Fold this sequence. Notes:
Elements: H1 2-28, E1 32-36, E2 42-45, H2 50-53, E3 57-60, E4 66-70, H3 76-102, H4 106-150, H5 157-212
Antiparallel strand pairs: 1-2, 1-3, 3-4
Amino acid sequence: MTTIRTGKRYWLSWLLLFAVVQPAAAATTSKLYRYTDDRGVIAIDDHVPPEFAKNGYEVLTPDGRVIETVPRTLTGEEGERKRAADAETKRLREWDRSLLLRYSTVDDIASARDRALREFDVRISILRSNLMSVKAQIESDQAKAADLERRGSDVPPALTSNIDMLRREITDTEETIAQKLREKDAAQVSYQKDMDRFKTLQDVVDLRRRNSGGTAD
């Protein structure tokens, strides 16, 4: 009888110990990891060995449900391509957002383009008018200097200095005009790109409307 009671106490002790340890064990294995080892074999463990983490892995619940997927580490070239692709995607999103905030139709963009080009034309016209005035002034000063030299008189330093200043002003104005013409061309190209992109966005909206059979917001 004593032996039987001792046996019962023994098994009861183990049952109690198992009841205490089982929740603790479950807590330590609340997540599992599925990864591929160096032989290409899929393994499931409570951790991912560092040498295999670069291949990517999945985080699982104890019942095998995937709760997170960690992609493999990209090579240098792959990383560069992905960064470039991500940057392009971000650029397009920002461009699209900007277009949709500023314009309602392609005609709105065309009107904005025309206003911008007219502003360039006004600035360029003013610069050209100033250039003509400066050129007329330098021709007059050069004629005065030439007349003085023909008569054997010295050309005043102030006149010579003014001619040099006018020459520099002509050079600067011509460069500014050339720069404004380049900016005008660039603006025209930029607005055309905006119009083309906006048309693409409209086509996407129209396609979604047709596919949904309703009206897109």
